[in-house]
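If you are new to this repository, start here. Below is one unmodified record pulled from the training split, so you can see the exact layout before writing a loader.
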Amino acid sequence: MTKKNPKPKIPIHLLPWLDALAITAWGILMLRYWLTNKLSLLIHPNYFWLVIVSGISLIIIGFFKMLELWQRRRRDVVPNTQHISLFPPGWGSTLLLITAILGFIITPQVFASDKALQRGVTADLLGTTRVKPQAFRVTVRPEERSLVDWVRTLNVYPEPDSYTGQKVKVQGFVIHPPDLGKEYLFIARFVLTCCAADAYPIGLPVKLPNNQERYSPDTWLEVEGQMITENLSGKRQLTIAATSLKKIPQPQNPYSY
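And here is the target side for that same chain:
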């Protein structure tokens, strides 16, 4: 007695609709990240246009796919559902749809001190070998340099004594590397070159004033002071001698470029 073939878990006539729904959901998700200002947490602004165009294109493709399926359904035409896939029919589209739904539910998170420590933060300057120097702006006054500007400046001329006494005013989040004393903290930011997958931290050590309160990791600060040279972990390092530390809210776009 021959056994009947088991029925597929997803009815055959629903598979094309599942494809169209997955395509449309991903298009909507891309535009949602853009409209809610979450896209800057995922990719460099230079590539926003690509995501926007892709999102609109996917929505258009999904819409016309659904329209075609609806017209076929009214004519009682059974669509061709043959797929060349390593997975059973419908699995690929189901996984894409589930991933898109998770994207709507889960909010992208900003990288913080724990991620910086995982990537090997020490008392040495963060990211000095990776920050590209072409954005170096020699005409910027010291107190107008951002944290990234300072690191790029050091890439061009790394002698810390050359900056002694220069004023500094930078913003970033707090890191407490294990090899720094209690009288220091690190002020840092993450730099995006393409997307969040290649984000890396850069920053500078900060020498705290006497009796200064200890700030918890990931606290965003605006630090004012002047540059000095300190011996940290057996190496001369450009350090901010802070005269003012002010808590600030996390910027809407916390990354640098």
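Two things worth knowing about this chain: Residues 24 and 63 are 7 Å apart (CA to CA). The chain has five helices and five strands.
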